[in-house]
Design goal:
Blueprint: H1 3-18, H2 52-56, H3 63-73, E1 85-86, H4 89-99, E2 100-101, E3 109-118, E4 124-131, E5 140-146, E6 162-163
Parallel strand pairs: 1-5
Antiparallel strand pairs: 2-6, 3-4, 4-5
């Protein structure tokens, strides 16, 4: 994705989160003011207003619905579309992938293939091509990751991989 597209996306997301700009002094706004008791944008159906993380996360699930989706996903292999690895942002994706080990106990090579649309947790998932050295298992595979889980660190490994122990954080 180009820098221009990213800036356009962030500008649009900021405008949506911030809502309409206030009118400049002396200008009038179009339309009548909302009626007393009228529901404002973001307050419909008892929902909290959207925040930037929600918009960028594609409307990720929260609370009980997220917990239910995690329980359901646990019945599928970790790293599959049905159970993507949960991490926090691109930095978390990179950190997790660097901790993977192939059957020869060496780190695999990996590259981001792209995003694959909304995943089972309601946010956009990314796919990574992960390749072990010749002869090492599991060979070449695709690992799906959901980077919209702040402060979450998955401790399991996808089938065929081991996960290097994470160093203690100060």
């Amino acid at each position: 994705m180009s820098i221009t597209r990213i800036l356009i996306l962030l500008s649009a997301a900021t405008a949506i989160v911030a809502g309409p700009m206030p009118a400049a002094a002396g200008q009038t706004t179009a339309g009548p003011p909302p009626e007393a008791g009228a529901v404002q944008s973001g307050e419909s159906r008892g929902e909290e207003p959207l925040d930037l993380a929600d918009l960028l996360g594609g409307g990720r699930l929260k609370g009980a619905p997220l917990e239910a989706a995690i329980r359901k996903a646990s019945g599928y292999p970790l790293g599959s579309k049905e159970n993507p690895v949960r991490v926090s942002m691109p930095r978390g994706q990179q950190a997790y992938l660097r901790r993977l080990r192939c059957s020869d106990d060496k780190a695999p090579q990996f590259e981001r293939v792209g995003n694959f649309g909304p995943g089972v947790f309601g946010s956009i998932i990314d796919g990574y091509r992960v390749i072990c050295a010749a002869g090492a298992q599991p060979g070449e595979t695709m690992i799906f990751m959901d980077m919209y889980h702040p402060d979450h660190v998955d401790t399991g490994a996808p089938p065929g991989f081991a996960l290097k122990i994470r160093a203690a954080q100060p």
